[in-house]
Amino acid sequence: MKKIITATIRIIITLTAWITAVCILGKYEYLNAFFDIDNIVGMLPFAMILSAVTGTTILLWLPAVRRNKPAAAAIAVIIALSAALFPTALRGNWWINPTTSDDTQTAPDLTLYAPFTGSQTARLDENSTLKLAAELPKLDGATALYPIYSAFAEAVYHVYSLAPETVVCTNTPSAYQAIISRERDIIFVAGASETQLAAAKEAGADLVFTPIGREAFVFLAGKGNPVDNITEQQIRNIYSGKTANWSTLGWRDGGRIIAFQRPEGSGSQTGLQWVMSSKPDSPCFIDSAVSRIARVFGVAQSDTGGLPIQVPQPLPSPELIGTNSLMNQVSVEWRGVQPALGYSYRYFATVMYANPDVKLLKVDGAEPSVENIQNGSYPFVNDFYAVTNGEPQGNAKLLIDWILSPQGQRLIEETGYVPLS
Fold it and tell me: How far apart are CA 12 and CA 56, in angstroms?
């Protein structure tokens, strides 16, 4: 009877270990993307889970005799190392001082969009139904959204010469810092990152997000790249480290994919995090536990528990860093091809800081056109927001209400973005 009970316990533990392993591999998409894993770094997490569960199985069934103790100890070490290094393997974080793209980004000429003086500032063909002459809300925001809120200021603010601090454009991270500290009344940005939300919570700020328009998050490649269409799964495979070569996407001579990234907290990096979390979590019963363990070990995930983004891998040459602008880096040549992949928002990439040697990729066969943004056939469409610290009050509320009015929405469309409806 004792042998039967012992064997039953071993069977239960073994099955639990293997089910857990399958759940973990399923959560991080190693099962459905297995045949697209084309590099050692991408295979390591799979190998570590397999070695851990195989080692656990062997330990459970290894006869407890003295001659097996050295083997058992070695297997236990392998299991411990696999578990400890798994979070590092998920993010591909094996490199010391890798050569990656710079954190800085060259900005477009924003004077072209300045209120009252910009030559490309969008304007209504009629007087605004709202005019503010005093206590003007101080505005800031993402570089890509400056043309929008600059146009709002020109339409609504009843003054030709604005004080320099009234309408500024720092960037997404700085704008979030400014709204948290109440240095600004409204900021215009994409959704916040986990880091920005945590900073707001720590400071006691109550960020209120009012959707005011829609935009497509786009993926970019050089025009010399023959790949015109990429699937959502392929994007997730690339930025989670599973796919590292263009040949896996059908371009045999493309070499290694140079997947550039932007700094944490930037609007486009938050967009990538959203893409990596766009699929629902696995229904596995241990899914929430896996997410909690991942956070304990410092594996960055989206707020919905999505795929960790692999850290930028070392570049083949420092020359590929380019001109500190992702829009220029994407068109870089290496060994006769354009192997880079990048991302941005549609308006920024096609109007504000366009690179004539860069193309926007279709995703799952859909172009990021205005029509496809409106009808939902392009998969990566999200809202952008007017963000306040607390519920909008006074002139800030009047301005946001006007932005949501037909005039405000028409001005968003005139700028080149997509209104809410």
Answer: 12
> Token digits for 397?
């509320």
Q: pTM of the entire structure?
A: 0.87
Unique residue bearing structure tokens 């001109």: 323
How far is Cα 219 from Cα 230, in angstroms, rounded to an integer? 9
How many C-beta atoms lie closer than 10 Å to residue 116's C-beta? 15
Phi/psi at 219 (5° precision):
-110, 140
Three-state secondary structure readout of 78-143: HHHHHHHHHHHHHHCCCCCCCCCCCCCCCCCCHHHHCCCCCCCCCCCCCCCCCCECCCCCCEEECH
Neighbours of 390 (CB within 10 A): 11
Contact in structure between 386 and 400 (CB atoms under 8 Å) = yes
Could you report the per-residue pLDDT of 259-310, keeping only the tens digit for each?
A: 988 888 888 898 999 999 866 545 465 555 555 555 544 454 443 358 999 9
For residue range 166-179, list pLDDT tens digits in order: 999 998 999 999 99
Look at residues 304, 300, 302 and name the one whose alpha carbon lies nearest to residue 280: 304
What is the residue type of 26?
Answer: G
Question: d(Cα 274, Cα 343) in Å, to the nearest integer?
Answer: 12
CA atoms within 13 A on the CB side of 33: 30
